[in-house]
Design a protein that fits this description.
CATH architecture of the largest domain: Alpha-Beta Complex
GO molecular function: transferase activity
Number of helices: 10
CATH topology of the largest domain: Aminoglycoside 3'-phosphotransferase, Chain: A, domain 2
Largest sheet: 5 strands, antiparallel
Helix content: 40-55%
Keywords: Transferase
Pfam families: APH
Number of domains: 2
Radius of gyration: 20 Å
CATH superfamily of the largest domain: Aminoglycoside phosphotransferase (APH), C-terminal lobe
Number of strands: 10
Order of helices and strands: HEEEHEEEHHHHEEEEHHHH
Shape: globular
Distance between the termini: 53 Å
InterPro entries: Aminoglycoside_PTrfase, CcrZ_PhaseVar_Mediator, Kinase-like_dom_sf
Strand content: 15-25%
CATH class of the largest domain: Alpha Beta
Organism: Bacillus taeanensis
Structural class: alpha+beta
Amino acid sequence: MENILGEDWIVTPAGGATGEAYFAQSGNQKLFLKRNSSPFLAVLSAEGIVPKLLWTKRLENGDVITAQRWLQGRELKAVEMREKSVAELLRKIHRSSELLHMLKRLGKEPLTVKSIYQEVYGQRQNQELPIVEKALDYLARELFEVEEHEMVVCHCDVNHNNWLLTDYGDLYLIDWDGAMIADPAIDIGLLLYWYIPKEKWQIWFENYGMMFTDELGKRMHWYVVAHTVQTIFWCREKQREDEQYSWLKYLETLMENE
């Protein structure tokens, strides 16, 4: 990385699951670098959804390095996910024809309820816990009742850690490695179930610009249950027992009325 920028730059790993992100600094200049980022990043930058993309360079080995403006800021707190700006930015993402066009050009296939169920069911083991079996039965039973409507670009990981609020008050949604073409109820369901008290859902939907319906609520619940079961299986694979226990307790609350 130092060879790209010059001797005056100090480059350090930025962490993350891929290990391909870095911070670079030279005096007062700061950059966020990433190796082999998707071309999708350029459209996200142009739409103002992620910090501005400054340049892209291709290395002799074929790797591509992107540099974004490094902005002083912080991740959102859980309670701040109720803010109007969050709903407005998510609406902008879901309604962007440019983002959708780019993902289609990149060959992304729509994520359907059938494909989600097949992936979840394929991860099960014999003698699953009763609450997991109950959830799998629910997903199968409701599979043909949960129909996708408009398919849009979904972030698919709207955890508050992925929302960047700069010191100037600008809000961005970062870490787009898991983006899919899918039902917007995936993003909406996870955000509302995790962060918004049910009595405040109506206000959130007004800020987002959509009417809440029972049919939408059914889709949201199905996706949240599916995501929770997938997370339980992931925790089991990674031997994260404490996290797995917490997600099992959460699944119990989701399945109380099913």
